[in-house]
Amino acid sequence: MNVFIAKKLQPNDNLGEKLRQTRLFKNLKIENIAKKINIRNEYLIALEEERFENLPAGLYGKNFLKKYADFLGLNTKELLQNPTTNLDNRLESNPFSQKIVKKSKFLVFPKIFRNILIAVAILICFLYLIFYLRQIFFPPKLEILQPETNIMISETSLLIKGTTEKEAEVRVNGELILNNHDGIFSQMVNLKKGLNNITIQAKKKYSRERVITRQIQVE
Q: How are beta strands 194-203 and 210-218 bridged, if at all?
């Protein structure tokens, strides 16, 4: 049967050795300690092996050390002040002990946020420009309410009625007709016996023209 013999901690033991010997003396496993103090296994191993470059940046290094030492029952203050470990100086030479985070670290999120806002603003401007150009150059909407389709009638006159955009001008068979503020227009046209082609046109100042035709057969 193997008997575990506890090794007495010597004053010249380094930091990692003190942590490791104390853990072994108490017959504790890294995995169990990691779960209890909520620190990843590799960070505890890094502390025992003094591989500080494997620890996160900032104040996490000393915080991890304090939690680990407290759990093992060691005096963190003595560990930090012990001239044999010279821990403070060693921490100062490693990235994870920096107390002051570089200003650029704090600017990362604001820069990303600013870039997102700029991108959104550019997209909004682009969409607005497309909408504005569409309003200017695309043909206006035009709907003929009467007659709805090609028809055959016996009368020699017919009321043409429809809707368009309020700023558009409307012509029926080339004749300009009035358009009220709601975009509704109407015009009585004279017909002849036989087939009559009626052309309704709507156009804004700079837009293309929209054209609808109706064929009216007069008996």
A: antiparallel
